[in-house]
Known about the structure:
Helix content: under 10%
Shape: globular
Domain Homogentisate 1,2-dioxygenase C-terminal: 299-395
Region (Disordered): 1-25
CATH topology of the largest domain: Jelly Rolls
Protein name: Homogentisate 1,2-dioxygenase
Pfam families: HgmA_C
CATH architecture of the largest domain: Sandwich
CATH class of the largest domain: Mainly Beta
Strand content: 35-45%
Low-confidence stretches: 412-422
Number of helices: 3
Number of strands: 28
Oligomer: single chain
Number of domains: 2
Largest sheet: 9 strands, antiparallel
Strand order of the largest sheet: 5-28-7-8-15-10-13-20-16
Organism: Knoellia koreensis
CATH superfamily of the largest domain: Jelly Rolls
Amino acid sequence: MAHYQAMGSIPPKRHTQHRRPAGRGKTGELYYEELMGEEGFSSDSSLLYHRNIPSTIAGAREWTIGDLSTTPNHPLKPRHLKLHDLFDAKDVKNTDVVTGRRLVLGNGDVRISYVVAGAPSPWYRNGIGDEVVYVERGKARVETVFGAFDVAEGDYLVIPRATTHRWIPKRSSKDPLRAYCIEGNSHIAPPKRYLSKYGQLLEHAPYCERDLRPPTGPLLAEDVGAKATDASEVYIKHRGNGPSGIVGTIHELPFHPLDVVGWDGCLYPYAFNVRDFEPITGRVHQPPPVHQVFEGWNFVICNFVPRKVDYHPLSIPVPYYHSNVDSDEIMFYVDGDYEARKGSGIGKGSISVHPGGHAHGPQPGASEASIGVQYFDELAVMVDTFRPLELGEGGRAVDDGKYAASWLKGSGAADGSDSSIG
């Protein structure tokens, strides 16, 4: 994110001496400078100043990541996955956002996982790509080497590749922490069409820099009740030669990970709440790209928020039937009354999988019923991928098996119930 920030103690000039405080007449030891940069240091970067040598490892061992196997969507058909059936309430208190994720869908570009967590996560960094974590429900504190965030319902947290951090659910929340995790094999950023050639969000973008929350900090070990010398472990997800191409390692450190006294640059985690997204509307139905919020390599992320709908006198507010011939469309239904899916069995916590090669659109009767509607009270997160997605173990476990038949006239709801999620 090319929006410069500076935090904590940094020297006036980069790559020059920056020393720790020392007694009168004494010279303190140097802080250790780390340049964290993208695309071979030819894109965004930040400079972090550490108390300890960031390369230090006291030991390393394997981390066995959960089941990342995938199964092709073959024979090709649309699917309804019920994410709220993935976790039992009794298991939540011992589940964390990092190790408890269950893979729902994935391909070589992106993986979509879901977790309901009540326990603090280990320190973690993703060495494969950026992550976008959407907080469906609950609250958490997220501590990173750049600083901390307090996140809650509706927050996206964008975490750059190799950022060491941990998730701590807040027990004061009435809801457990429900997180929808989108892991790229690339960087994830605002769409290029929203940005000037220098990286500023333009006037036509549905959000701006004022809506983005940088971390608060800097955050050091003593700020979280620890000692700077506390030994620690960092769980690392990285590339390897396993069946999924993804393996895990645990690095043992002889000090606490929170040792950054200051940093500056344009590469850092940030939060964005979906309520700050300003929807783009029109007299007739607008295409999905107007809902886009982020993009990665071979995938995009969109959100559908409460909004005024089409106001042409003859408009049909729900979507037309469409064949997105280049992508799979994955819609995560978070809140509201999703007009186009009435009669399908879909509700809060559902995912619809509409694969490329299959025309999809509103359920029978939804188009006629939407005429005259002026406002949609709906909230959903959509991921479109330009390579086919396969079903992960989590997706296979909660596939309702009925959704493909929900467009048959006279069939009623796929599960015999009203699908309104209001």
